[in-house]
Amino acid sequence: MNLQFLLDGTLSGAMIGLGAIGITLTYSILRFSNFAHGDLMAWGAYAALVAVGAILGGPVPVLGLSFGLPLIVATLFAMMVASGLALLLDWLLFARLRARGQAIIVVMASFGASMALRNLLEFIFTSSPVYYSSALQIARPIGLGIRITPDQVALLVLTALLVTGMHLYLTRSQRGREMRAYAQNPALARVVGIDVSAVIRTTWIIGASLAAAAGVMVGVLVQVRPLMGLDLLLPMFAAAILGGIGSVPGAVLAGLIIGLSEAAAVQFIGAEWRAAVAFAILMAVLLVRPTGLFGVTER
Predict the structure, then answer these.
(1) What are the tens digits of pLDDT across the range 19-50?
(2) Which residue has the higher pLDDT, 246 or 251?
(3) What is 214-227 written as a DSSP string?
(4) What is the CATH number of domain 4-288?
């Protein structure tokens, strides 16, 4: 039996999980669903593309990878661009609307921001897909019918490092503890002197940076195009809800569950059922546990 779908699902789940971290943090701390999050992913992917092609002279394959140091540096640049864009949106739009205390207006504004960012990308880069590298890789068999490329190994390692770093930051650093405290009780956090503005800025920076990293992963494994963030937006929201709002480990685990279920649907049922199977799992879990896998009931 060919189990290649397990690897494909794990890779897809890793990208979904990284993106879902930003969504779950934004919702738990800022109390609104940011529908522009997928477009931050696309902007990060294009920022890395520009950095690789125009600034660093193109990809330089190394150690069997289709990319090398230029794309690694470009990914850091992409994280900064996406973070700056997220902070700019918050300053221009979201912060002013949050001050009015009407969450639904902020959500609708994120819809508008999403459309504006996506159309701007299409205007600048056109809708044609592009690639970081044209180098071909030979997949190596690892048993059970599974074949893997060096790029896929590298991106799985990168995901593990980013998720581990994110977990350590939230649990070990002072700012991470302040973010968790504010998510649990905003009023009390203000009373005890937590710098709310710094918490909000950090939330945007972390969420946008991880979205940009996920966008680069999609670009390496698939392609870069303006609609790439929109395609992953619903799976990312599903992972955030399934994992439990505010839970980083939950978002990652749920991302893997959704990625594997989608890959299994393609393998055994048909590609047209891919999204349906993932959301059927989501609804089934939420019927049993409405707070998600790692969520807690708000009091």
Answers:
(1) 999 999 998 898 888 999 999 999 999 999 99
(2) 251
(3) HHHHHHHHT-B-TT
(4) 1.10.3470
